[in-house]
Amino acid sequence: MKAIAVPALLLFLALGLELLIHGAASTSKHYIVYMGEHSHPNSDSVISANHEMLGSVTGSIDEVQAAVVCHYTKSFRGFSAMLTPEQAETIAASELVISVFESKTISLHTTHSWDFLGLNSFEQYNNLPMKAKSDVIVGVMDTGVWPELPSFSDEGLGPIPKRFKGECVVGESFTLKNCNRKLIGARFYHKGFEAENGPLESWNATFFRSARDTEGHGSHTASIVAGSLVPNASLFGIARGTARGGVPRVRLAIYKAWWFSQPSEADLLSAFEDAIDDGVDIISISAGPIPPQNGYFSDAISIGSFHAFRKGILVSASAGNTGLPGTVINVAPWILTTAASSIDRELNSNLFLGNSKTIKVIS
């Protein structure tokens, strides 16, 4: 019995190891397939060509439909799909493909703004022609917007520029009335995030399946760029003054691609596609990949910015908050990379102790 049991055990272990290796190799991940600009006549023909390429590795149309997550059909051609590493490698070998890379997490950034640059007087902007100020459209890609904030008031603004082709997409707690002559567009993207992380509802956190912001970062960055004047603003009575953006009279188009402070690169590319097609003048992104950054065409912000640049759209992106000293990201030559080497932000207050002593504190 012992002579039979040992080989049987070895056979069982060998089969188990083979299954483990095969299973690990076959695990699907979310990949982005980027193919550059295209000459297809319309979006339907691009999608059909994408399905044909994807079908060459999945084997059937049903598997194609199950695998595909996003299509990119306007400014550039590509798609994102759930693929095994072997399938991704096969597609990458095609001469039609520029790059295939796994969709990664992009972290949010933030820091101090216009006063630090010496732009401390709204009157500085009054010398600019009114029409030029109010017809510039800035697309902000972030966590969304809280439209009721006074920073997004449209008081004093004229009609929405006719060249803008964007939409105010309705969703949870976000209606057409939440857009105005200041917030002229709002979109949101979640297919990529849910493909990688499961349904939004499974996160056990507050969210709105719409462009509404529950994290604050998107509302913050949008107001830094173009917030309307808000007199007598303060943080619980500290730093009281008039809050405003860099150019308070420009228009905003919001592209929400972040959920729970992390986006899918696939969703971010969808946001770029729409922003370019909508006709924004500037795209602002206060976020970037976790260092070290991949090559230009294996990075969603670099790819999207390249095609925006080709259409005459300026992309301004932050240089990052993490990494070794001197580390920067978003450094593609077609991106305006912004950073500060120091800050002067201080909030001064008094801390009252139980022994009746008072300590001055700075944060």
Structure overview:
The structure is a single chain. This protein is 28% helix and 23% strand. It has two domains: 22-102, 2-Layer Sandwich (Alpha-Beta Plaits), CATH 3.30.70; 106-338, Rossmann fold (3-Layer(aba) Sandwich). The chain has helices spanning 2-25, 43-58, 61-67, 85-92, 130-135, 191-197, 217-226, 265-278, 300-310, and strands at 29-34, 68-72, 78-83, 99-102, 106-108, 137-142, 183-188, 230-235, 238-243, 251-256, 258-259, 262-263, 282-285, 287-289, 314-318, 336-338, 348-352, 358-362. The strands form six sheets. Strands 7-10-6-13-15-16 form a six-stranded parallel β-sheet, with helices on both faces. With 363 residues, it is of the alpha/beta class. Helix 2 (43-58) crosses helix 3 and helix 8 runs parallel beside helix 9 (300-310). The model is unreliable at 17-25 and 128-132 (pLDDT under 50). Strand 8 and strand 9 (238-243) form a beta hairpin.
